[in-house]
Write a structure and sequence with these properties.
By secondary structure, this protein is mainly β. It is built from one helix and eight strands. A hairpin with a 2-residue loop joins β2 and β3. It is extended. The N and C termini lie far apart (about 60 Å).
Amino acid sequence: MKKIFTFFILLIIFSCASYQPTRYNLSEFKKSYKSYDLNIFWNEERKGEILTVDGVVKNVYLGKISELEITVRVVENDKKISEAIYRFFPEVLKPDDLLPFRLTISLPEGKDYNISYFYRGYLITDEMELTFGSF
């Protein structure tokens, strides 16, 4: 009985110690945006009228980032056609943290349109909390 108990304790200890966070090769992403607070890397894939945006965000700020949102908006002649929002809730990005995201959005078939990207969140340091965002 003592051997079985010891085995399970060791199994629990080694299982926790072997966790490795997901690693992302940022050079695989075709598009990127870099700012003083956040770097965003993404790929776009269109299938028919659906655009899928897969990417990661990286906190390059000295403090934490909370309540982060990424918005993809399809605009035609300054009019919003469709929009998709990804909310990183309840995650808090610590400095140098990477978090993945995926958005799908409908696109108009055969029309001229622009795709705009926005982000919004809160920067948190020991001295302040500040709303930031957009690209």
